[in-house]
Amino acid sequence: MVVKEFRELKRDRRTLGMLIGFPIILLVIFGYAANFSVESVTTALVGPGSEALVEQLPSFFDVVEVDPTGTAQDATDDLVDNRANTAIVTGDGAGPDVFIDGSSLFTAQATVAAVQGLGDSVTVDVLFNPDLKTSWVMVPGLIGLIMTFIGTIVTSLGLVRERQDGTLEQLAVMPFRPSDVIAGKIVPYFMLAYLDMAAVTALGALLFGVPFNGSVVLFGIGAAIFLIVVLGLGILISTVSENQGQAIQTAMFIVMPQILLSGMIFPLSSMPWGVRWIGFLLPLTYFIEISQGILLRGAGLGSLWFAYLVLIVMAIVIFGGAILRFRRDLAPELKTNRRRATEGAVGRS
Description:
With 349 residues, the chain is an alpha/beta fold.
C-alpha cells in the first residue's frame, strides 16, 4: 500500500508539487511578510514654521508634504485621503498637534510610541479609531476575506462538482447557450456573497461598534466589483481542476497569500519590497483599502479612485478570461451533446 501511494503521488504531479513546494513557498514568503514592526510613517507637516520642523524630526517620520499655510482641517484631510499616516500641525502658540490615522492599527501604535519621544508639549489625537481597537481594523478586512472565500473556493468547488457529476452535460438538451449556463451558475454565488457582506458589515457595527462613516452606495459598488474579481478566480480554478481536491489545492494557493500579504494582518509598509510587490497584485489589498477608507475614515471616491480602477481592470481581465476559458471548455460539450440529442430525436421519429 505504501508503494502504491507513492506511485499515485508520482503520477499526480500537482499534489506532489503542493506537498513539496507549497510549504517552502509559504515559509519564505510569509517569513518575510510576518513583521509587525513599522520602520517609518508618512508624515505631513502643516502650519506656520513647519519647514523648520523637517530637520528636527527623527527619521521615523518620513515627511511627504510640507504646507506652511495649511490648517488643522487640511491635516485631517491628508489622513482621510490617505496621503499621509500622520500629520503634525504647528503654529498655535503651544506645542505641535499630532494627528494619527487610527485605521492603520500597527502604524498608529508605533507612531504613538514615537511621538512620546518628541516632548511633553506635543498633543496627540488619534483619528478614526481613537481607542485603537483591533476589531475596527479587522472587520473591514474580514468582509473582503469572506467574499474571497465564497467567490473563490465555494464557486470553484460548485462548478467542479457539476462537471464531475455530469450535470453540465444534461443541460445540453435544454435551450441554453454557454453564457446562460455561466450566468445561471454564478449569479447565486454573487447574491449569496453579497448578502454575507451586508450581514458581516451590520454585525461588525452592532457587535463591535465599527463605524460606517462613508457612502453606503460607494461601498456597495466597491464590494460588487471585488466580488466579480473573486468569482472570476473561482471560475478559472474550476477550469484547471479535474476534481474537487485539485480545486481546493489551487484555491488555497490563491487565498492564503491574500490573507497574509494584503495588509489585513501585517502592514504592507513593514514588508520588504521582495515580498510587498505580491500584495499589490492581490485584489483583497485594494478592497481593504476601500473598506477601511469608507467605513473608518469616511473617504470618498476622490481618494479611493485608484483602488477602484485597479479592481475594475482586474475584474475585466480575470472575469473576462475566466468566462472565455469556461465557454471554451463548456461549448464543445454542449454542442456535442445537443447534436447527439438531436440525432436521437430524429432516429426515434
